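One record is set out below.
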Amino acid sequence: MTEKIQDKVSGYESIRLENQLCFPLYACAKEVIRLYRKPLEDLNLTYTQYIVMMVLWEFGPMTEGELGRKVHLDSGTLAPLLKRLEKQGLVNRERPRSNERKLLVSLTETGEALKEKALAVPAAMQGCINLELDELLQLKHLLDKAMRSMQPENT
């Protein structure tokens, strides 16, 4: 049987910031996103726009719903983001005649061309987290495992 964090800390100890798993995850994510600002300036993208563009570069056209599931964003957050990307000339949003309830998102030629410029981003981010390669791979593995365990079909 696996031991739980609550088994180790109880009472007021359980609400101390230093005993929370959520806080270092939140703070680290916030800091990494802050570090992305500089390399993303050249692309004129926010971090969230960048992850949407990465999905479209990798998988091609898809519905807004599919895109939202891949990037873990609800429609209320994704729709305005896509409108801004469309204004920038990077994506097209259109309703197919076959099903006008769906919104198909695809890259424009400009959006597709931005992929080449985006190749500089991972290189610029290299080393922003001061861990050894095996530690980074382990961290990624654990975060992926945690995300899978929190998916609706697993809760």
User: Anything to note?
Assistant: The domain at 46-110 is CATH 1.10.10.10 (Arc Repressor Mutant, subunit A). The chain has eight helices and three strands.
